[in-house]
Fold each of these.
Amino acid sequence: MNEQLLAKAFVELADNLVADFDLIDFLRLLTDNCVGMLGVNAAGVLLADLNGELRVMAASDEHVRVLELFQLQNDEGPCLECFHTGAPVTVPDLATEAARWPRFAEQALRSGYSAVQTVPMRLRDEVVGALNLFRTRPGPFDRPPRASPRPWPTSPPSASSSSAPPGRARCSTSSCRPP
């Protein structure tokens, strides 16, 4: 990974963590940086609302936004699995997952995506959503994206590859925003 590009992305993300930052703008910036730095073609972020229901918060493009909505409407897909288990989901070839997620796999392939990697987004120890990374070609992912070893001082939602306790995660609106 290009270290200058990574440093620029962290500076850009940190610049948005001011007292009155806009969460949607921050998450869109996150998805754009994921596409630019991680060798994926698209990215999407889903976060839980006050009732623990996932909502599409940001997507790198409209095709992925529609696919994320499809995932929620059909109650199947890697994001939902990741959110509920708190564990990353990596699928190098969606064509092999027809039994696991029949409607999602078919729709993703029809939309041009052949591989997906999903990592839980956490606020402290609570799973508050998931980050989906899509590729148009099948094949292994190098490794799951990892959060920095130390949390950011303002504790925004962050991608992490560590497991959370099982069960349905929830996020209140106040816990998804900085104080």
Amino acid sequence: MSPIVRAGAPAEFLALVPHLLGCTPRSSLALVTFAAGRSLGALRIDLPAPDSDAEVENVASTVIGMACKVSRTDAVAAVVYTDLPLRDAGSAPHRALVDAVVARADICGLRVIDAFAVGPDGWIGYLAGADGEPRPLEEIAADPDLTRTPELDGDQYAAATLPPVPTAERTAVNRLLTDAGHLVARSREAKRLPAGRRAAARLVLDDIADPPALFEAFVSPDEDPDDRAVAAVSFCLQRPLLRDVALMQWIGDLTTGDATYRAQTAHAAGHPFPADLARPMWGEGARPDPPRLLRALDRCRHLAAATPRSRRAGPLAACAWLAWATGGSTHAAAYAADALDIDPDHGLADIVRIMCAQGRLPEWVFEREAVTSPGGTESSRGSRAR
């Protein structure tokens, strides 16, 4: 559970917003949603071009529309993060955007608690004399309560950078993927593999023989995946049928993975795919377990970094979808773009790119309900049948 942090003064509130967003935003509009005086969370969107009235109205409409979808929201507060200096500017930057946000909120019945701008040389309040001298940034000091929250690391794009992976691990994963590929293709190279490498590659293929079991172990909180598991899951994420099983299982549970795998196998034989199992792919359905989903994203980021770039489009597309599923459309768009740089025709990456460009987020991002499994609740690992 997130700690409750009280922010009474404006400067204290401005210190809190980056922690709600999980980053120190740049060139952004942040909107904090409230219900009965308590913050529910924060939304972030890129600033529009200041001289484009149509884009300003579109951004205001989009961000207030998102706020309205958050359960129980009755008020909002806006913060503009700008690279433009506030001193000697003549008027507050992005005033038209803030006015549009206030107007749109009023139309939708939302109270605007306050609106601020944070620039490189200070901060101001739009609703209380924005034409005065900016206040110093030093006033936006971290509240002692914020010491219990995770440290912020960079702007909204920083967390989309893949983590560093030791050369030895990347080499091992590449070798396992290459050797497993030779065994599957029954190529001449497979016959030339040394006994040890052949045995290691066969273990990877053994893991792939039961994809849901592999995917469940991959997101287990008990231990981090080893090179063999990373190679096996990477092998699957490069294949759309198995990749979709993984994503639906990580957003659901083992039962969901079993049901999706059976449905995918039947679909390949010409049978229709069950609509209930497909809905989560488009962001419809019950809210998933956030720690499980974030753990899947974190491990897929490591997996993508460990996978050779030529084979990385599938893992990056999985990262893109998982980031989108957690509400991180900025990161999702970055992963999707990287995947499309490698494979311009990658289907899932292009789908995520389009959804991010349209400002579409999953329904569950705006909900606070218990998790249920779209695969049902009667199956267990011991009762699975292939």
Amino acid sequence: MTLLVAVGAVPAWHRDAACGDLGKLFASKKPVDVDKQRRVCAGCPVLGRCAADAAAKRKDQLPDLIMAGLTRTEHPNGRLVNARRACTRCREKKPLTEFNSKKRGKFGRASTCKKCENARQRAAYQAKKAAAS
């Protein structure tokens, strides 16, 4: 899969982009590769056009890739940059990055934070283990 396929309709300015032939690198979500992607974006001659194109799109239209040096969750129009949410278990307000992804959840995130969800799963496992003994 190339970057061109992942993003959909490709604007004319994209043929001058530094990421144009790096589809395999830009398809990876590994932290090491994300850092490499950011470095490629930093030296791109059409970074401004790419950022403007990303800003013109809604969150659901942004590819799940690095675009203009930012991930989908970091783009301001993604509404996830400074958003916070209260966990339904511990009632603490936390950044959305503290919640697991969930397609149907508010902001695309689960209602319980990762810490509370892990504690719930551990307790369920211990109860199942005790019942089996």
Amino acid sequence: MAQNSLEKQEAKLKQLNQKIKAEKNKIEQNLGKQIIKSVSLDYANLSNDRVKLLAKQFSEFLKENPVDHQS
């Protein structure tokens, strides 16, 4: 009986982890879209290398200009 309870808890934990992962992906996609939109980037010019360079530049900018994480 205890094993059945553990299996149920494990299933709930797995489901919760999937929800967290999905939410993180949604936030990442939304952030990317908002950045692209706000700086009027052309999708045609966004190669993998260009995306990596922009991400690095953005990361460096945020390190120098920390974001207030409180809403």
